[in-house]
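Feature request, filed as a ticket because there's no other form

It would be nice if the structure record came with a short human-readable summary line next to the tokens. Right now we just get the raw output. Example of a typical job, pasted below so the devs can see what we mean:
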Amino acid sequence: MATRSGAVVDAECRPSALASTLSEERAAELAKDFAVLADPVRLRLLSMLASAPTGEACVCELVEPLARSQPTVSHHLKVLADAGLIVGEKRGRWVWYRAVPNRLVHLSGVLG
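Raw output as currently delivered:
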């Protein structure tokens, strides 16, 4: 047995479950989604939409709880929508947004 950084390493190391981890391509795709969620405002927005009692919220309802301007909130919603994490539907003057459940399940499944 050899030591590396104080850890004991078996000289006959064999492939293990590590061989079935994410491919480099898939990891790059997921990293883009997680980068979108790395912003605290976007993470809060997604959380608010995912837990909305009616399953959706108007952009006008999201401004006050975030203490951000409507253009700033709209910008963050666009980033989430471009990533496919939420979808919006224009109704009159406002856009109503909802989370895309299968995308959320998929992202959480990667971490599980």
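Something like this underneath would help us a lot:
The longest strand covers residues 86-91.
The two ends are 33 Å apart (CA to CA).
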